[in-house]
Amino acid sequence: MKIGKKRERKRRVVVFVLILTVLSVFGAMKWVGHQNELRMLEEQERIRKEEAIRKAEEEAIAKAKVAEEQKKAEEEAARLKAEEEAKAIAASEAETKAVDDSYFEDALFIGDSRTQGFQIQSGITKGTFLTYKGLNVSSAMNKPLINRNGKKVTILDAARGGAYSKIFVMLGVNELGWASDQAFIDEYSKLVDALVDAHPEATVYIQSIIYVSEDKSVHDKIYNNKNINRYNDLIQTMAEEKNLEYMDLNQVLANSKGHLIEDASFDGVHLRPDYCKIWYQFLKENVIS
Amino acid sequence: MKKSIWMAMVVVMVFALTACGNKEKTYDLSQLSQSILEKVTFEDTLTEIDSAMLSVIYGIDETTMTEKTLYKGSGATAEEFILLKMTSEEEAKKVYANLEQYVADQKEAFASYVPAEVNRLESSCLIQNGQYVFLCVASDTEPFKALVE
């Protein structure tokens, strides 16, 4: 009987211990869960705070950026306005100091079909024009192209004949396909030297080759603006070395991409009347008066 | 039978020649130039050029013209037209010869520059009618002829 009671007590103790253990484990698990929950909440709170800080920082950066862009735009607008004003003043001054048609009374123009177009469509009424379609620096010296008293003579010989105090030359576009740049500039130098020899008192203006249109430039392996730029560099250097006046017509006839203004030409090469007039105005404003 | 046919032909010829001889047509050059711009197809855009250029380009004495109209392209093509009324038929004949030479020179100049334009110059139409002289360079000058004639 005593043994039975002892066992019973032992069983109860075991059961009690088991219950206690289960409860402890359960309690511990709940505590751990609670702790995890707390940690999660803390983590969430931390993330929320970080997010808020990040957002605030981003907003501050965006605001600063907007303010900076606004400031830049205002500065750019002010700069453009100042530039436009300066340009307007310069244009007005240039127009004021521009010579009139009579300046070209004793001027000689030598050039190719572009200069022919200039003669016909710019509105110029004075000057002597020695021009020929497809003229180049070599044919100007060697090919009899101009009628003089029933006889054909070279452009150079015809140029030697008159009395001129200003000589305007624009050649080069027909030579773009030449194999040698050196041959081109050597021939150009020879022609210019001969003109200076014939008219030592004259002011010689060497005009740049006018660009071709973007469409022409992109699709033509020879008559493109890359080649024109290369030739113009050679021409400018030659003019400077010989102390002649170099006139960059592309200042007024090119767009911002470095091509002839798109509606300036029907075929990408020859200028329409309005642009011949711009060319003429540029000469009038930039000659030595 | 044959004789009567010949007679009829002679009569017709005489009438035709008489008709040509009496034909002293006058033109309104301004109106004619507008009609040409409307009816003739030009590839380039033609613009009216100061008539002072007539003496410069074609060597025509300013004082021999009483009316003049000149339209030219940018130089990309040989297209152009000239309408002139001279002081006399004699002057018109001289100018006709000048313009014949001009067209020949243009052919030579374009031959080594833009050879395709030579065909256009071949199609050019030069007409002298009394004191009037007309030149048109275009690919198809039939509408020009129709307007002038």
Descriptive labels:
heterodimer; A: 289 residues; alpha/beta; two-stranded antiparallel sheet; B: 149 residues; five-stranded antiparallel beta sheet; globular
Q: Topology, please?
A:
The complex is a heterodimer of chains A (about 290) and B (about 150).
Chain A: H1 2-97, E1 107-111, H2 113-121, E2 128-131, H3 139-142, E3 146-148, E4 151-153, H4 155-161, E5 166-170, H5 181-198, E6 203-207, H6 214-219, H7 225-241, E7 245-247, H8 250-253, H9 273-286
Parallel strand pairs in A: 1-2, 1-5, 5-6, 6-7
Antiparallel strand pairs in A: 3-4
Chain B: H1 2-22, H2 29-39, E1 47-48, H3 53-58, E2 65-72, E3 80-86, H4 89-111, H5 116-122, E4 125-129, E5 132-137, H6 142-148
Antiparallel strand pairs in B: 1-2, 2-3, 3-5, 4-5
Helix pairs in contact in B: 2-6, 4-5
What does this structure look like?
The complex is a heterodimer of chains A (289) and B (149). Chain A contains nine helices and seven strands; from the N terminus they run H-E-H-E-H-E-E-H-E-H-E-H-H-E-H-H. Chain A is rod-shaped. In chain A, helix 2 (113-121) links the parallel strand 1 (107-111) and strand 2. In chain A, helix 1 (2-97) packs across helix 9, helix 2 (113-121) crosses helix 9 and helix 5 (181-198) packs across helix 7 (225-241). Chain A has helices at residues 2-97, 113-121, 139-142, 155-161, 181-198, 214-219, 225-241, 250-253, 273-286, and strands spanning 107-111, 128-131, 146-148, 151-153, 166-170, 203-207, 245-247. Chain B contains six helices and five strands, in the order H-H-E-H-E-E-H-H-E-E-H. Chain B has helices spanning 2-22, 29-39, 53-58, 89-111, 116-122, 142-148, and strands at 47-48, 65-72, 80-86, 125-129, 132-137. In chain B, a hairpin with a 7-residue loop joins strand 2 (65-72) and strand 3 (80-86). The longest helix of chain B has 23 residues, at 89-111. The interface between A and B is medium-sized, with 21 and 21 residues.
